[in-house]
Recover the amino acids of this structure.
């Protein structure tokens, strides 16, 4: 049995020794493609080239210029607002279109605050200069929708902002508030001119002693069309002193008034004084929105209501003693005055001329008297 095991071991050894592992076939080397040279680097000249294609609408000068424009318009509105408490810090959101010509069209309030700020925001948007219109992929101008937020506040950190009187003065102020000093010349008929009253010389007045003082306390201008045109109104007081010939004294009853010659004393003055509450209604044209730098022209009417009147005579008695006689009465004066008014000037200084459309006294109580009043004006911005 040992022999048989030995024979089997030898036999198996010879069998496995005879097996030769086949050597792998060598793969022939493939043909190598030629290397492709990298593309040459393109040199670009230092020229700003603008490619055609879609673009958004833009304000001339860009966002910075737009912000400067909005700030200036908002600050201008704030300083001409007459409210005692301004809602600083409030915002108004406006949506609008820019047409292919760059014009601003169809501005609408997307989210507002109140009627005053909303109206101001729309006005600021409408009056903007033309934009650069949006373009499509063919570089053609097209209509675009745009949105802006207007913050009603003052940028105190702006280096260009100087908080001084010239800046805070009320832009677009009416040239009426202030005071006026002038003289008066009586005429005998409406649209007639006979200051000597040929048929009734007792009513001739002395112009250089017949003074007019107007104290115009308040004025406001409503903007029309542009900053150059406005409708102004307000209120004030007018003090009118008419000096008649010294020897004539006023006499009156319930239905008449007359000037009677009186030589019993040495009279020096005979004055009829009246005080009136007045209100103007005038159109104003101003060459600038700045009060101090504008030539202005006002035309319209000045109405008033009489609130006080008296007649005053002064003179001396034969012994040299002075006297002053004052009679407080209505003297059948017209309870109203209505003057056609024309005013012109530059900034705070100007001149005025008023022509009475109503007679000094009530119709039927005496002859008509239609004064012309003229003088100088000193205007104060409000």
């Amino acid at each position: 049995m040992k022999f048989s095991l030995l024979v089997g071991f030898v036999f198996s050894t010879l069998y496995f020794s005879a097996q030769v592992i086949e050597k792998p076939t060598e793969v022939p080397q493939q043909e190598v493609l030629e290397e492709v040279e990298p593309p040459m680097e393109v040199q670009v000249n230092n020229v700003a080239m603008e490619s055609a294609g879609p673009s958004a609408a833009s304000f001339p000068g860009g966002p910075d210029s737009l912000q400067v424009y909005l700030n200036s318009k908002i600050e201008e509105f704030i300083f001409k607002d007459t409210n005692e408490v301004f809602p600083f810090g409030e915002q108004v959101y406006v949506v609008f279109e820019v047409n292919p010509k760059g014009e601003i069209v169809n501005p609408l309030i997307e989210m507002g605050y109140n009627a005053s700020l909303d109206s101001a925001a729309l006005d600021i948007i409408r009056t903007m200069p033309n934009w650069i219109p949006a373009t499509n992929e063919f570089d053609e101008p097209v209509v675009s929708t745009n949105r802006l937020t207007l913050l009603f506040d003052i940028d105190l950190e702006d280096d260009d902002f100087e908080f001084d009187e010239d800046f805070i003065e009320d832009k677009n102020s009416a040239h009426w508030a202030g005071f006026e000093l002038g003289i008066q010349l009586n005429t005998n008929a409406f649209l007639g001119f006979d200051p000597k009253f040929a048929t009734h010389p007792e009513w001739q007045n002395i112009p250089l002693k017949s003074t007019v003082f107007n104290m115009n306390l308040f004025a406001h201008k409503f903007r029309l069309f542009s900053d150059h045109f406005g409708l102004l109104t307000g209120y004030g007081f007018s003090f009118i002193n008419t000096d008649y010939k010294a020897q004539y004294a006023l006499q009156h009853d319930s239905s008449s008034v007359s000037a009677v010659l009186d030589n019993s004393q040495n009279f020096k003055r005979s004055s009829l004084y009246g005080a009136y509450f007045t209100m103007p209604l005038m159109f104003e044209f101003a060459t600038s929105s700045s009060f101090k730098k504008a030539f202005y022209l006002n035309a319209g009417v000045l109405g008033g209501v009489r609130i006080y009147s008296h007649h005053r005579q002064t003179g001396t008695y034969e012994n040299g003693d002075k006297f002053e006689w004052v009679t407080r009465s209505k003297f059948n004066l017209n309870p109203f005055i209505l003057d056609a008014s024309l005013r012109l000037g530059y900034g705070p200084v100007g001149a005025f001329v008023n022509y009475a459309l109503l007679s000094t006294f009530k119709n039927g109580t005496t002859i008509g008297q239609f004064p012309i009043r003229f003088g100088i004006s000193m205007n104060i911005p409000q």
User: Anything to note?
Assistant: The first strand starts at residue 90 and ends at 98. DSSP finds four helices and 16 strands in the chain. The radius of gyration is 46 Å. Helices lie at 2-18, 63-80, 115-126, 165-168.
